[in-house]
Every structure is written in C-alpha cells, then in structure tokens.
Amino acid sequence: MFQCTFRRTLQKINGMKPISRRNFNTKLTKGLGGVAVAASLPVNCVTAGPLQKKRLGIALVGLGSYSTYQLAPALQDTEHCYLAGVVTGTPAKAKKWANTYGISEDSIYNYTNFDKIKNNEKIDVVYVVLPNSMHADFSIRAARAGKHVICEKPMAMNVAECDAIIRACQEAGVKLGMGYRLHSEPYTQEVKRYAKEKTFGNINYIYADAAYRSTSNPNQWRLNRKLSGGGALVNMGVYAIQSLIYGTGENPISVSAQEFSTRPEYFKETDETITAQFEFKSGAVGNMMTSHNVRANRLFASCDRGWFELDPANTYIPLGGRTSQGELNFEQESQQKLQMDDFAKHILYDSPNLAPGEMGKRDMMIIEAVYKSIVQNGKKIPLSFEENYGFGG
Ligand code: NAD
Fold first, then answer.
1. Do you find a cis peptide bond into 312, omega within 30 degrees of 0?
2. What topology is assigned to 53-179 in CATH?
3. How much is the pTM?
4. CATH says 191-332+357-382 is which class?
5. What spacing in Å lies between the alpha carbon of 131 and ligand 1's midpoint?
C-alpha cells in the first residue's frame, strides 16, 4: 500500500510520467529531495509537526449502488479518511452497514434528523451520493452543519442550485469538492499533462464518447426528470464534457447540440442520445456523444505531432490508453480511494482541490447550454467562464 502511494507521488514529482516498478525502485534508491518526500508521506507515517493530524471521518449520504459497491469499499483502504457515519432512509440498511463497517449508532442518521450531524465530532466530511434532485439540499445542509462537502455529479439540477451550494460552503467556511474521481486517476492525469505541456503539439480535434445502454427498470430515478434533472447528458455526458476540457486544457467558447430518440417508450422524460460540437479558443474543435442507448467510452485527441487516446476513458477500473508513441501502462487502484484521499489532503494540508465546486458549476453551465442549443435546433450557443478549470486544481 505504502509503495503504491509512494510510486504515485513519484509520478507527480516527475511530471506524471509513467513509472515502471523497476524505474520506481531505481528512483527510490537514488533518493529524492527530503522535503518533497516527507510532504508526500501517508499521514500515519509522519511523526511530527503540523502534519500530525487525524484521518478525517466521512459520512456517506445515500446508501445506493455507488456508496455500496465503490465508496464504502474504497474507504476501507483510504489513508487520510475513513467511513465514520451513514445517512439513510432505510433502517434495515443502517443496521447492515453498522454491522459490516462497525459504525456506532450515534453516527447513523436518516434524512429527517440529518442536521444533528453538526454535533458529531467524528464526522468531518459529508459525501452526498443521492439522486441528483437531492444534491443541493443535502450539500447545503451539510455545509450549514459545519461539515466539508463532497457532492456527486451532476452537481445539481441547474446552475442556480450550484451557486447556492457554493455560497453555502463559502458562508460556512467549509471545503467543497465534486465526486469527479478521474482527476485523481493516473491515465487521466497523464492526458491532462499532454494538454498542459503540449506533448504532441497543438490539439486540433478531440472527441469524447461516454455512454451505456439502459434496459432495466423503467421506473428508476435516472429516467425520472424530477429526480434526475435530465437523461444521458447529466449522467454520462458529464464525463464527456470533462474529457473534452481536460483533454484540451481549455474551457469551450461555444456549443451546438443535437438530440436523437429511438426508444421514446422507454425514455419517456429524459434524453436518450445527444451529440454536441464545441469550439475552443485555441482553434481546437471538440465533438461529444453521450447516450443511455449506446455502449461507448472513449477520448481521442488529434494533435500537430501525433495523437493520444483513452479507451475506456471513464470506467472505474481498468482504464486503458495509448498515444502515437506507444501504449500507456499505469498501475491502477481504486479511483474512489485516490479521490477521497486527495480531498482529505486538500482539507488537512491545503493541497490543491482537484475538482472544486466551481468546476461542477461550469459543467452545469455547459449542460444548460447544450439543452438550450437543442431547443433552438442546434443553434451555436456562446460560452464564457471566469476561470479555467481545464487542468483541474
Ligand atoms: P442508486 O439509485 O443506486 O442510489 C440512490 C440512493 O438514494 C439509494 O440508497 C436510495 O434509497 C436513495 N434515495 C433517497 N431518496 C430517493 C428517492 N426519492 N428516489 C430514489 N432513491 C432515493 O444511485 P447511485 O448509482 O448510487 O447514484 C447516486 C449518485 O451518485 C447520483 O448522483 C449519481 O450520478 C452519482 N454516481 C456517481 C458515480 C461516479 O463515478 N462519480 C457513479 C455512480 C453514481
């Protein structure tokens, strides 16, 4: 475990170049600057000074499939945070989770008594993993309870709700992060490096597909507009939007979009397939496809002096990728573990917030522009943003 973390840290120190096991060992024996190494040590390896802080307690709100199969298992391996509490509307789940993870009764809440979490010193961070329509309410209540917040994607139902979450966190003086796990993941970090350093020259064209085929329960909340806020676009489309932005290192300056429907009897209220074209200030052109009716998961960028791609680009694990210079090969571990540890380090040591709330708001602004373009038959909608979160933190 320690070596994994350490090797990842070395990757960071070395400008995100892939480091093989042999390479890693060589670098380790040659030694590195002591300060950089000490600052990167897992918290329980650090013995003195301000770094000697506790691990942060995280409470998961909503014990559905993402919390059950990804976040809770990842929290068994995290170094800077741990599962300290749960919030659920189902007493049977509360009991099961308490038994499985040894959560004490005073750290189990339901949606009604949730605000009492403010008196719980064991809980530092509230992670909102509920249907999209509930993100704003619980993120704001968590902030008002004095807890740091991680909010799942999409950040909320609209830009106004994103603003309200950001404001609540600012007023409460707590940190806000998005559940954008890929910013902590090595293949994605490598792509961000290509964009930043122009490893393959200027990026002329980039595309991102993020889609899966939905055939199960037609009454699920993801197909209910009141609970989801939209269809494929707000679910998988967020990944495609993110890919285009960190793949170019730029926010887009315009978007034109189209919607396609082939199974209206199943997708009664939400979008099935959306394509959209983006312009970037550098001259790069972007194209995305997102769908609840297609299987696709890829990022590809064509540049002046070569190309790079991730395929798959945003599944949990394993990701894959290659460039015009060859195959990429990074060690892979739980993205959720890396993400939650990175957010905990942001709180504990003021390291960069890799996916701040403003990034979630920016993506919601793009989502709203895509829907606006569709309503106006693909009209080009201008976009402008105050800050560039292309590189993420
Ligand atoms: P899920 O349907 O499996 O779980 C939703 C949970 O919310 C359940 O425990 C359910 O009981 C609870 N809930 C409370 N009120 C509800 C209501 N009115 N209707 C339906 N459920 C209600 O969903 P999930 O896949 O765990 O997704 C939860 C959130 O996490 C979503 O915002 C989703 O976009 C996000 N997510 C993110 C990732 C990622 O990789 N970052 C992956 C999966 C899901």
1. yes
2. Rossmann fold (3.40.50)
3. 0.88
4. alpha beta
5. 5
